[in-house]
Specification:
The structure holds three protein chains of three kinds. Chain A has nine helices and ten strands. Chain A is an alpha/beta fold. Chain A has a single domain (2-90, 158-241), classed as P-loop containing nucleotide triphosphate hydrolases (Rossmann fold), CATH 3.40.50.300. Chain A has a six-stranded mixed beta sheet with strand order 6-7-8-3-9-10, with helices on both faces. In chain A, helix 3 crosses helix 4 (112-125) and helix 4 (112-125) crosses helix 5 (141-153). By secondary structure, chain B is mainly alpha-helical. Chain B has a domain at 23-173: Orthogonal Bundle (MetI-like fold), CATH 1.10.3720.10. Chain B has nine helices and no strands. In chain B, helix 2 (12-45) packs across helix 5 (88-113), helix 2 packs antiparallel against helix 8 and helix 5 packs across helix 7 (130-160). Chain C has a single domain (8-220), classed as MetI-like fold (Orthogonal Bundle), CATH 1.10.3720. In chain C, 81% of the residues lie in helices and 0% in strands. Chain C is built from nine helices and no strands. Chain C has helices at residues 8-12, 14-47, 51-66, 69-85, 90-115, 119-127, 132-162, 174-185, 188-220. In chain C, helix 2 packs antiparallel against helix 8, helix 6 (119-127) packs antiparallel against helix 7 and helix 8 (174-185) packs antiparallel against helix 9 (188-220). Chain C starts with 7 loop residues before the first helix and ends in a 6-residue tail after the last helix. Classes of the chains: A alpha/beta, B mainly alpha, C mainly alpha. The B-C interface holds B 1, 60-61, 63-70, 72-73, 76-77, 80-81, 158-163, 165-166, 173, 176-177, 180, 186-187, 189-191, 193-194, 197-198, 201-202, 205 and C 1, 3, 62-63, 65-72, 74-75, 78-79, 82-83, 157, 161-162, 164-165, 167-168, 175, 178-179, 182, 188-189, 191-193, 195-196, 199-200, 203-204, 207.
Chain lengths: 246, 219, 226
């Protein structure tokens, strides 16, 4: 039941090898946490999976079908693979519910009332039903990210990509977003999560991947990689993250 | 379609005379416009000075009336009031210079205002007078920021030189009209004039882009 | 001052001046509409990743920004008819010239506005499956337009001043009429002064309206509902 299959994914930016031949299989229901230092290629990898970046080499296969480069095909892929960004990227000129509805109305061409009903449900799911008519400028960071998640969910994605969803949030707002993501995980949704929240990864992920210099350095279950890492680099990365634990 | 540029280029001496005329009026208006503009800009900057309102009236009037109207006024209307002859060059130069002064006044004002208040404090703390602070501390910093906009103004002045043809001043477009009427070749004549202007202005435009980029990097 | 000012000949020709003003506004309005539409098209072509869209658009923009408007006007009025073989009235020449000329400047305003929108907005739109065209139309342009309005207003007022050039090709705009009247009445001082004042009042008026509009925009902040 492999949903996503990646072979030899390579990406170069201005002479630097950001991704060096990544091979990855994602089965349905898997929750994969991706860790790594900045510059290790984590975001780039994620963005290549929904073709927000075009890889220089390698293949991406979704549900058994090899994805080509034609824009029409790519927009269809993006409807099936949702993404949540570190900077939320909400549309400031639309209300919260407007944001959630936008994909349904413009991309799926649903009539307004149908989209609205669905959007209200998604907003309720992330706990923001009462903020439906608020503009993003009046929402807190955590609320904005939850709206962004609702917006992604409204498209019924088969897989969700989270690109450091809590890195831009004030610490006290991180929890509300992680709780939403955890609830999605418990529903059995397939997701890839680039994050620095090691504790969250430990409890929610089914597999953890450590990326270094554009390649998969080590991977395993949360137990394996986070508690008993085999490689030196993984160990020192985890150490630097635990320097100021309570 | 048979294009005949030979008849245009054989009149190269007429074009040359036009080019000289264009450059002459450009130089005059550039110097007068940008320097008078500085004076007006300084008056506009000093909000509580008694020159503020006259300067504002000047700027608003010359920015909100077309240059061609100003040129024709100076050529046809001013001689009635003034006891002396107004040549085509004088009329056109007056119109373009005053217009440019009004626009550049606002550039100067904006540039000076953009300099942090702290610079004034630092200058005054050393005992400098207003004029000294302006000359030695504020303006040198402001000029750098204003260069792209001022270069733009220079480009506009160059383009406005063609308006002098409306009062039969000998510049490039006027010569183009002359050649076209003598040789019945308006296509070649006006295309040539357009190409000459493009070749003259293109480096200036590129200079503006270059300066804008350098300014952005420096900030 | 021994000169006796006499405005009565000017006042007697007021209807002609009014007609001239109407023609001025007519040319400006036409050039503005076509200029905006063409400007948007040029801007989008310039932003296109396809080079055989971007380069011609870039060429048009550069040529029309780097040559004097009066030269362009003369070229379109005297040269183009001979090349294409059509009748060219002063109005048509003016309409074509100033439409294209203003579009070159509008294109840069459009492009600047679109480019100024944070890249994340494109990301957000593409990530929910929008095509680039949908993203531009639904997400980027609505935000960009608001930012571009001050520059547009400024350019439009500029256009109003530039169109006076039509007087040189004998189009009966306000300046042309003023010149005509001045010669007929031998009162150039009064006539041209009145003309200058009319121009000032109209253009300054629009300029004030533009500033008011900008202030209102700055206050209102975000938000257009679906």
């Amino acid at each position: 039941m492999t949903l996503l299959s990646v072979r030899g994914l390579t990406k170069r930016f201005a002479g630097n090898d950001v991704l060096r031949g990544i091979d990855l299989d994602v089965a349905r229901g898997e929750r994969i946490a991706i860790l790594g230092a900045s510059g290790s290629g984590k975001s780039t990898l994620l963005r290549c999976l929904n073709f927000m970046e075009m890889a220089d080499a390698g293949t991406v296969t979704l549900d058994g079908k090899l994805i080509g480069r034609r824009e029409q095909e790519l927009t269809l892929v993006r409807q099936r693979v949702g993404m949540v960004f570190q900077q939320f990227n909400l549309f400031p000129h639309m209300t919260a519910i407007g944001n959630v509805m936008e994909g349904l109305r413009t991309v799926r061409r649903q009539p307004k009332h149908e989209a609205q009903v669905r959007a209200e449900r998604e907003l309720a799911r992330v706990g923001l039903a009462e903020k439906a008519d608020a503009y993003p400028a009046h929402l807190s960071g955590g609320q904005k990210q939850r709206v962004a998640i609702a917006r992604a969910l409204a498209m019924d994605p088969e897989m969700l990509l989270f690109d450091e969803p809590t890195s831009a949030l004030d610490p006290e707002l991180v929890g509300e977003v992680l709780n939403v993501i955890r609830a999605l995980a418990e529903e059995g949704r397939t997701m890839l999560l680039v994050t620095h929240e090691l504790g969250f990864a430990y409890h929610v992920a089914t597999r953890v991947i450590f990326l270094a210099d554009g390649a998969i350095h080590e991977q395993g279950t949360p137990q394996e990689l986070l508690k008993t890492p085999r490689k030196e680099r993984t160990r020192s990365f985890l150490e630097s993250h635990k320097q100021f634990s309570i | 379609m048979h294009w005949d540029f030979v008849s245009v280029l054989s009149n190269y001496d007429a074009l040359l005379a036009g080019l000289v005329g264009t450059l002459k009026i450009f130089a005059i208006c550039l110097v007068l416009g940008l320097s008078f503009g500085l004076a007006v800009g300084l008056c506009r900057y000093a909000r509580d000075g008694w020159l503020y309102w006259p300067a504002t009236a000047f700027v608003e009037f010359f920015r909100n009336t077309p240059v061609l109207v100003q040129i024709l006024w100076f050529f046809f209307a001013l001689p009635i009031l003034a006891p002396f002859e107004i040549s085509p060059l004088a009329a056109a130069a007056l119109g373009i210079s005053l217009n440019s002064a009004a626009f550049s006044a606002e550039i100067y004002r904006g540039g000076i205002q953009s300099i942090d208040r702290g610079q004034w404090d630092g200058a005054r703390a050393l005992g400098m007078r207003y004029g000294q602070a302006m000359r030695r501390i504020i303006l040198p910093q402001a000029i750098k920021r204003m260069l792209p906009a001022l270069t733009n103004r220079a480009i506009e002045i160059f383009k406005m030189s063609t308006l002098a043809s409306a009062v039969a001043y000998v510049e490039l477009l006027q010569q183009g009209k002359l050649i076209a009427s003598l040789n019945y070749n308006p296509i070649e004549a006006y295309t040539t004039v357009a190409v000459i202007f493009f070749m003259l202005l293109w480096p200036m435009v590129q200079l503006t882009y270059f300066m804008e980029r350098r300014l952005k990097r420096g900030e | 001052m021994s000169y006796q000012w006499d405005f009565t000949p000017v006042a007697a020709n007021a209807p002609l001046l009014a007609e001239g003003l109407a023609n001025t506004l007519k040319v400006t309005a036409v050039a503005l509409c076509f200029g905006l539409a063409l400007g948007l098209a040029l801007a989008l072509m310039r932003l296109s990743p396809r080079r055989w869209f971007a380069l011609p658009a870039g060429l048009v923009i550069e040529v029309f920004r780097t040559t004097p408007p009066l030269v362009q006007l003369f070229w379109f009025f005297f040269a183009l008819p001979l090349i294409v073989g059509i009748e060219m009235t002063p109005f048509l020449a003016a309409a074509v010239t100033f439409s294209i000329q203003s579009s070159a400047f509008f294109a840069e305003v459009f492009r600047g506005g679109i480019v100024s929108i944070d890249r994340g907005q494109w990301d957000g739109a593409l990530a929910i499956g929008m095509s680039r065209r949908q993203a531009l139309h639904r997400i980027v342009m609505p935000q960009a337009v608001k930012r571009m309005i001050p520059a547009f207003l400024e350019r439009s007022i500029e256009l109003m001043k530039t169109t006076t050039l039509v007087a040189t090709i004998a189009y009966a705009d306000l300046l042309y009429e003023a010149n005509d009247i001045a010669q007929k009445t031998f009162r150039p001082l009064e006539t041209f002064t009145v003309a200058a004042l009319i121009y000032f009042v109209v253009i300054f008026g629009f300029s004030l309206l533009a500033r008011l509009w900008e202030k209102r925009l700055a206050v209102s902040g975000e938000g257009t509902v679906h």
